[in-house]
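look at this:
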Amino acid sequence: MKVICNPLNLPYRYQMRGASQPACREAADPTLLEVNGQYVLFPSMTAGFHTSEDLCTWTFHVLPENFPANDYAPDGCVLDGEVQLCASHGSKNGSFYRSRDPLAKPFREIPGTFPFWDPHQFVDDDGRLYFYWGCSNAQPIRGVEMDRNTMRPLGEPVPLIAGHPEQLGYERMGEDGSDENSAPWIEGAWMTKHNGRYYLQYAAPGTEFNTYADGVYESEHPLGPFVPAKNLPYSFVPDGFAQGAGHGSTLRTRDGQLFHAATMRISVNHPFERRLGLWRAGFDADGLMYCDQRYADWPMALEDAPFSPPRWMLLSHGKPVRVSSGENAACAVDENIRTWWSASGNQPGEWLEVDLLAACQVNAVQINFADEGLFLEPPCPTETLEQGRYIERVPQHTRWLLEGSTDGKTYFVIEDKRRVETDLPHDLVVREAGVVCRFLRLTVQELPYGQKARISGLRVFGYAEGEPPRLLSSRATREGARDMLVTWDAEGADGVCIQWGVAPDKLYHSCLTYAPGMRRITALCEGQRVWFRVDAFNGSGITCGEVQEVEE
């Protein structure tokens, strides 16, 4: 079984902006491709890319020296067996770079003829190449056909998608769409073709918000005209441990399955403190494009079909925590990546222990490290920084020991990474057969730049003996054209998964939340009827509610 858990388990690199701004890790704007039989992931601001045979285990590679590593939103396509990459700066012409084998052969540059932000290259079935770009709160996403050899436009750019937050609730700025007065950023184009129809995806309203989402417009032609899809948004994760799911890419794998990669936010040390997520996607019989994000940051078996129930339940939420020192121990189990426990010192051996309150079957543990007050001087003058930052090049180490116990006295090793050469701030430990324990203790050995131990989530998944929760009632009422208020009453629940959609059998949107009995959803589209369902969960299972129509 191939298991992932969002944020993806990758070596996110530090960004240094000078002594006046805290350093933080960043990766965003993922382009996911298949190249020469391998899956390749190109994110912003890592000075490299990742390859994988299975979308589960990834290997990092450094970008070639002539590629502009500090330019945003790297995008790629395959042309006549060659990989073609580009990235954006906005204030200079964007060039294109081709290689027969990006792992071994050099890239040759094709000089660009115009500047752009957030590029996307789409090769149609007939071999024609289309180019899309845009990242603005004032200008639309544009598209144009390109000459495959010279990478010059073959016509005038066509405006394709602009913001309409007055109609599309998820496009509103602010946390949970709270800002009605600011224009959204419309950005991050990506094209998918299915059954002869073109699905142009885009991101809104801004990468620093929990509602950062991907929408999708449809057309019979790659340059439109495009109309909004019936089931918007396409990719949307407004709650849970890690939030946000915008500016992404959609890949059809070798076996025909669709996966969507997108940007998740932390945005505490800097608005662009970001991570990557990956989810199953697809099309239904009516041609509606969907992304399965029902349990968006829980472990997911890649071979499972979209909307399969999770194999393992969350066991650690709200459980008692003991620590060696420091403050905010409960933040390690509050299912919020933006809060954390911080040890008092940075000496090896600081530890945190979670008590599950009973012996449970444990199948997966995600260990999430946080950064705070880390000021790093880049190894170059601040005035020479490209795009305002230096991307770390020197390998770092994140080392720890994870132990389990049934009685809190005798411990056994679950995973020992005290001597690894890796730096994985969202590491995932999987025990498919399960181990039985009540206590889980994480001892931190070494962190990059001698930081204090800081844990935003020691997240434990598996199965607890007991009964699933009782869902006593659920209700949703429309509030204005773009919002609904969902309420529920449940006994023995740790949280709920709210699902909604444009038909009773098309509940493609979801919000996993630990809120006590009420959650406002601000992502509805004006004029659409909406159906919903509330499922309650705890460590022993899920109780599904009934499908109902949202009350007007």
